[in-house]
Write a structure and sequence with these properties.
By secondary structure, the chain is mainly alpha-helical. 68% of the residues lie in helices and 3% in strands. It has six helices and two strands. Strands 1-2 form a two-stranded antiparallel ribbon. Strand 1 and strand 2 form a beta hairpin. The longest helix has 40 residues. The chain is elongated and about 60 Å long. The two termini are 36 Å apart.
């Protein structure tokens, strides 16, 4: 198989969106997993999606354009992961409120998953929610949503910040991300 420059650019754009998702997604961003394993998994998933993602009609022609397209895809993946992680942060916050009501708010631990200081009940509710998420195949739903995101937001389509229709573009981008998050 001969790989040309256009195919390599498509692979890099797919990889950028996946890496953005891995930075923030609930199960995939756990700090316990070594970074080289995450990177290997990102490359493997990008290789699998490389054959099923539709080839964009127009790719950036300059290096600067390619860097902007990669940053755009990274941002899209990060936002998708952020929206998915909001649910878990709400669960953790509810555990913090329960902790406060119980009078245990002074007892805090360092979470190995996030690297931050959390309350005991907040960490417990987070772990229970994470376990329920994995039992319900939530990690597979994240990967499915990632695949569907390439239909909703095609590769290489930049968000034009200088146009007068910026608000409409942001609304359409936000609605696509929220639709994917609701599916999760």
């Amino acid at each position: 198989m001969v790989i040309n420059l256009a195919q390599l650019e498509v692979f890099l754009l797919i990889l950028a969106r996946i890496i953005g998702m891995f930075i923030q997604a609930p199960v995939l961003s756990i700090k316990i997993i070594p970074p080289w394993i995450k990177l290997g998994l990102c490359v493997w998933i990008a290789g699998a999606l490389w054959f099923v993602i539709p080839f964009p009609g127009e790719l950036p022609t300059t290096t600067f354009g390619l860097v902007l397209a990669i940053l755009n895809e990274l941002l899209i993946g990060y936002l998708m992961g952020f929206v998915a992680s909001l649910i878990f942060e709400a669960v953790r916050a509810s555990g913090d409120i329960i902790d406060l009501q119980m009078g245990l708010s002074i007892a805090q631990v360092v979470s190995p998953m996030t690297g931050g200081v959390v309350s005991v009940v907040g960490q417990l509710t987070f772990i229970i929610a994470l376990g329920a998420f994995c039992v319900m195949d939530g990690h597979q739903m994240i990967l499915s949503a990632l695949h569907q995101s390439f239909r909703a937001l095609p590769l290489g389509v930049p968000v034009n910040i200088f146009s007068s229709s910026l608000t409409l573009q942001l609304i359409s981008l936000g609605s696509a991300i929220w639709a994917i998050a609701v599916q999760l």
